[in-house]
Amino acid sequence: MAEETTVQDRTNPWLTAAADAAARLPAEQTAAADRDEPSAGLRTVFVAAHGGAGATTWAHVLGGTDGGPEMPDDGTPVVLVARASVAGIDAAKRILAAHAAAVACVLIVPAAPGRPHRVIRNELRVLAGAAPLVHAPWVPALLAMRPAQAGPDDIPPKDLARLRAALPPTREGDIP
After folding, report:
1. Sheet containing strand 65-68, strands side by side
2. Mean pLDDT, to the nearest integer, of 56-84?
């Protein structure tokens, strides 16, 4: 199985781009990444891959910081947020090609209830080769409120617990 992974790593362009980007990082950034510690006291930043991704809402719900479309350059853990659509996945791919080393995971926000279209599922498999994916639940009530009104109580408890366990801690000292 290790042989398969090695072959796949060499042929997957998203993994190759991530490795190339990591090789170009200055030594001090690489050393900080090797420690696997987020910068002290910094909150996880939710960065929108595209407009309407839901980054602001999910940052409020999960207690993170809304980074808008800008990638932070201070070592803060980044959750890239993308809608489960061809346009959303393509936007996430473009950002990962340029900033893969900075992204802890991609939060996939459903575009509709139910199982995504086959094309979307295939594109998500490709995206998963570049970064870990975390699937947000479909919560129709979030569409009917402003992002600042959204909170943890709006998410079913099981889904909230699953998300918190899968995402980086949103504040120093948080335990997933």
Report:
1. 65-68, 45-48, 78-83, 103-109, 133-135
2. 93
Distances in Å between the Cα of 29 and the Cα atoms of 19, 22, 36, 102, 169 are 14, 9, 11, 10, 20
Do residues 49 and 85 make contact, with C-beta atoms less than 8 angstroms apart?
Answer: no
Those residues whose C-beta lies under 8 Å from the C-beta of residue 154, and which sit 6 or more positions away, are 61, 139, 141, 142, 145
Q: Are 57 and 150 a contacting pair, CB within 8 Å?
A: yes
Question: Using CA atoms, how far apart are residues 63 and 12, in angstroms rounded to an integer?
Answer: 34
Per-residue pLDDT tens over the stretch 113-146: 999 999 999 999 999 999 999 999 999 999 999 9
Backbone φ and ψ for 39, nearest 5 degrees, come out as -55, 140
Asked if residue 168 has pLDDT above 80, the reply is yes
pTM, whole model, 2 decimals?
0.75
Residue type, 49: A
